[in-house]
Specification:
Length: 110
């Protein structure tokens, strides 16, 4: 990964509300490798924690995997939101139904 991608992944990792256990592990890894106290790492803002995490040479495999998954999910969400904004939040099928007055839910299997 490039340095920019690592930073984005680390930022997404710290912003994920469901990754608290992994975030605690990351705090301990940062504290150990940077010779900080864990309490100090916890007090850092998200950007500084992301910078420290992205700058680490080694991460435990489960922690690195979790960060990658969170990064990819955040990127997909961003792409979807961008696409929805560009298309007005409608897929072509829903736009046709709303123009014709058809309010039935669409089904791929019908």
């Amino acid at each position: 990964m490039t340095a920019d991608q690592r930073l984005k992944a680390a930022r997404a990792f710290w912003l994920d509300e469901q990754a608290t256990d992994d975030q605690i592990q990351a705090v301990l890894v940062i504290a150990q490798q940077k010779k900080f106290r864990p309490k100090f790492v916890l007090s850092l803002d998200t950007d500084r924690k992301a910078k420290h995490l992205s700058g680490l040479r080694t991460l435990p495999d489960p922690l690195a995997a979790r960060a990658l998954v969170i990064y990819h999910l955040a990127e997909q969400r961003l792409r979807k939101e961008t696409h929805d904004c560009e298309t007005g939040g409608r897929t072509p099928g829903t736009a046709k139904r709303s123009e014709s007055g058809d309010r039935r839910p669409s089904s791929t299997f019908s």
